[in-house]
Write a structure and sequence with these properties.
Layout: H1 2-7, E1 13-17, E2 30-35, E3 38-53, H2 56-62, H3 65-68, H4 72-78, H5 81-87, E4 89-100
Antiparallel strand pairs: 1-4, 2-3, 3-4
Length: 102
């Protein structure tokens, strides 16, 4: 479902924990987003804005639930509160470059 929202351009913001492996990530970098049901289906997207937040709720003050693609309650289930408190989160605004699927 999220894959379809990204490919249609509805979901334009991806959320990540601001962990060590994300420190190198910057504007202009490419994201490869795979469909869970078929790893060969992929969308290439470019990061054109990256904002740091201390709390998930703060992301929703800047971006709509539609742009994020999930409710705050859903994100709370994905990202444990302790991890968010420790690392913060990144909201990556993305633009689809190329879908690679039928």
């Amino acid at each position: 479902m999220l894959f379809e929202k990204i490919s249609s351009g509805t979901k334009t913001v991806e959320i990540f924990l601001n962990e060590e492996e994300m420190k190198h990530f910057s504007v202009g970098d490419t994201l490869a987003i795979h469909r869970k049901s078929n790893e060969e289906d992929m969308i290439l997207a470019s990061a054109w804005s990256i904002k740091k937040f201390k709390k998930l709720a703060d992301v929703y003050k800047v971006y709509s639930e539609t742009a994020i693609g999930l409710s705050l309650e859903s994100l709370d289930k994905i990202y444990p509160q302790n991890d968010v408190k420790k690392h913060g989160v990144l909201a990556v605004k993305m633009r689809v470059l190329k879908p690679n699927y039928d």
